[in-house]
Amino acid sequence: DQQVKQNSPSLSVQEGRISILNCDYTNSMFDYFLWYKKYPAEGPTFLISISSIKDKNEDGRFTVFLNKSAKHLSLHIVPSQPGDSAVYFCAARGSGNTPLVFGKGTRLSVIA
Amino acid sequence: EAQVTQNPRYLITVTGKKLTVTCSQNMNHEYMSWYRQDPGLGLRQIYYSMNVEVTDKGDVPEGYKVSRKEKRNFPLILESPSPNQTSLYFCASSPWIFTEAFFGQGTRLTVV
């Protein structure tokens, strides 16, 4: 049973436009959500996170939105740049000693 | 430089030959974990450790062992590797379970 779902395996966006990556979760006990970016031949790197007490967190060109009632979060990248081309993983965890649960990832291609 | 170091980066081995993938972090992090990444399956946690001598199973622990004798090291042991353990492996560490994780560069293992 997949608790964190990224239903779009890939996404192509033109440079300068907005990229929106989506993530759904099923476990209502999740209260902390993270996005990681992964380039080929490298490990994932932390991008941005959001706690369940917030509905938005912004860091430069990256904004994460959380809709708890819909169990949905999204990552917005504005404006998109070719260097943003990577695989993006959504991850979530609950309270207590629970490990991170990752989605399958979405491959973003930003076309110049 | 703060980092998580895995060795080796690439390994080809034969079925049944015991191997160890090392992981070391220089950030004095309490929490360490191992993941495997497979096409279409994303990142799945194998084992994690919340402190020295404290380890626990993740989602896919079968066929793997770990140890945490020192805070900085968290080796992954495959006692009798099989072809279905061919995968890309990542070690990660974080100050605590509730914070974002820092990943190593990955170990690509092929078992023939």
Explain how this protein is built.
The complex is a heterodimer of chains A (112) and B (112). Chain A has 112 residues and is mainly β. Chain A has strands spanning 4-5, 10-14, 19-25, 30-38, 45-51, 56-59, 62-67, 72-77, 86-94, 101-102, 106-111. In chain A, a hairpin with a 6-residue loop joins strand 9 (86-94) and strand 10 (101-102). The mean pLDDT of chain A is 94. Chain B is an all-beta fold and 112 residues long. Chain B is 0% helix and 51% strand. The N and C termini of chain B lie far apart (36 Å).
How are the SSEs placed, and which strands pair?
The complex is a heterodimer of chains A (112) and B (112).
Chain A: E1 4-5, E2 10-14, E3 19-25, E4 30-38, E5 45-51, E6 56-59, E7 62-67, E8 72-77, E9 86-94, E10 101-102, E11 106-111
Parallel strand pairs in A: 2-11
Antiparallel strand pairs in A: 1-3, 3-8, 4-5, 4-9, 6-7, 7-8, 9-10, 9-11
Chain B: E1 4-7, E2 10-13, E3 19-25, E4 31-38, E5 42-51, E6 54-57, E7 65-66, E8 76-78, E9 87-94, E10 102-103, E11 107-111
Parallel strand pairs in B: 2-11
Antiparallel strand pairs in B: 1-3, 3-8, 4-5, 4-9, 5-6, 7-8, 9-10, 9-11
Count all strands of chain A and give the number. 11
Helix content of chain A: under 10%
Largest interface: A-B, 23 and 25 residues
Quaternary structure: heterodimer
Number of strands of chain B: 11
Topology pattern of chain B, helix = H, strand = E: EEEEEEEEEEE
Shape of chain B: globular
Q: Which structural class fits the helix and strand makeup of chain A?
A: mainly beta
Overall pLDDT score of chain B: 94
What would you report as the Rg of chain B, rounded to the nearest angstrom? 13 Å
**Uncertain segments of chain B of ≥5 residues (pLDDT<50)?**
none
Order of helices and strands of chain A: EEEEEEEEEEE
User: For the terminal residues of chain A, how far apart are their CA atoms?
Assistant: 38 Å
Kindly estimate the percentage of residues of chain B that lie in beta strands according to DSSP: over 45%
Helix content of chain B: under 10%
What is the mean pLDDT of chain A?
94
